[in-house]
Specification:
Number of helices: 10
Strand content: 5-15%
Keywords: NADP, Oxidoreductase
Radius of gyration: 18 Å
Helix content: 25-40%
CATH superfamily of one domain: NADP-dependent oxidoreductase domain
GO molecular function, one term: oxidoreductase activity, acting on the CH-OH group of donors, NAD or NADP as acceptor
Strand order of the largest sheet: 3-4-5-6-7-8-9-10
CATH class of one domain: Alpha Beta
Protein name: Aldo/keto reductase
Family: Belongs to the aldo/keto reductase family.
CATH topology of one domain: TIM Barrel
Pfam families: Aldo_ket_red
Largest sheet: 8 strands, parallel
CATH architecture of one domain: Alpha-Beta Barrel
Length: about 280
């Protein structure tokens, strides 16, 4: 397996463009999933406080050289007060068995807690070397614009739902314009798009799976993808994305899929619930 390409973060760190998602996988299943992923060439693992699987992932990480891995976790929206952020981070580091995270994200915006307070805590953790890069998750363009105004540390990443059925082009362009890497946390719409006729037609032409086509489409837009699978064949296919390209006409066909179906419960482009300064 060739080395997975990377994208540069504002800090100069390199983030692998394909990572192993671990949402909704726990216990022995997540240990087996992460172990298999690392054996198949993944070096990027994404977890979160709310996934309740950090301790299990930490067991697997202990079998590998920490310097070879890019590790992300996230703080729950209920824990965004200053002291709670630092306590959550300490707990995550302990469970994962590491001294620092490569990337730490605000998992969701919380309109009841001051974003300045949250970023003050993240800046302190960054200065102390506990997190190498700071980012957000599930932030709309409006929320991201506000975050950039109150954050004294660069916002390196916005992890969002983005896939061919939920192509958020305006937000993607804004992030690219401001040197914020976009990560797709549900790049396969939790398998719902596998029957899409356009993806299947393109997949047949390239002798690939619809999942591979959806992931490649995102990679060609400079999006980092975090597909989740507990299946060894799918884990292998989900990283077999290099050495071939979709041509511009096929990318355009996928761009033009006429639907905006998000698989998350909240429409992330609805700013009505706002954020606090």
């Amino acid at each position: 397996m060739d080395t997975v390409p990377t994208r540069s973060l504002p800090s100069g760190d390199e983030i692998p463009v394909v990572g192993a998602g671990t949402w909704d996988v726990g216990g022995d299943a997540v240990k087996e999933t992460v172990r298999t992923a690392l054996d198949r060439g993944y070096t990027h693992v994404d977890t979160a406080e709310g996934y309740k699987n950090e301790a299990e992932i930490g067991e697997v990480l202990s079998e590998h050289d920490r310097e070879d891995l890019f590790l992300t976790s996230k703080v729950l929206p209920s824990n965004l007060h200053y002291d709670n952020v630092l306590e959550s981070l300490e707990a995550s580091l302990d469970k994962l068995g590491v001294s620092a995270l490569d990337l730490y994200l605000i998992h969701w915006p919380n309109p009841a807690i001051s974003l300045r307070e949250t970023f003050d805590a993240l800046e302190r953790a960054h200065e102390e070397g506990l997190i190498r890069n700071v980012g957000v998750s599930n932030f709309s363009k409006y929320q991201l614009m506000f975050a950039r105004k109150v954050a004294d540390v660069p916002i390196a990443v916005n992890q969002i739902e983005l896939h061919p059925w939920y192509y958020r082009e305006e937000l993607l362009e804004y992030c690219h314009e401001h040197d914020i890497v976009v990560e797709a946390s549900a790049p396969l719409a939790r398998t719902e798009l596998f029957d899409d006729p356009v993806l299947n037609d393109v997949a047949e032409a390239y002798e690939k799976t619809p999942a591979q086509v959806a992931l490649k489409w995102a990679l060609q837009k400079d999006i980092v993808v975090l597909p989740k699978s507990t299946s060894e064949p799918h884990l292998r296919q989900n990283i077999d994305l290099f050495g071939w390209e979709l041509d511009a006409d096929d990318v355009a066909r996928i761009d033009d899929i006429d639907r905006m179906d998000n698989v998350y419960m909240i429409d992330l482009d609805d700013d009505t619930y706002g954020i606090r300064s």
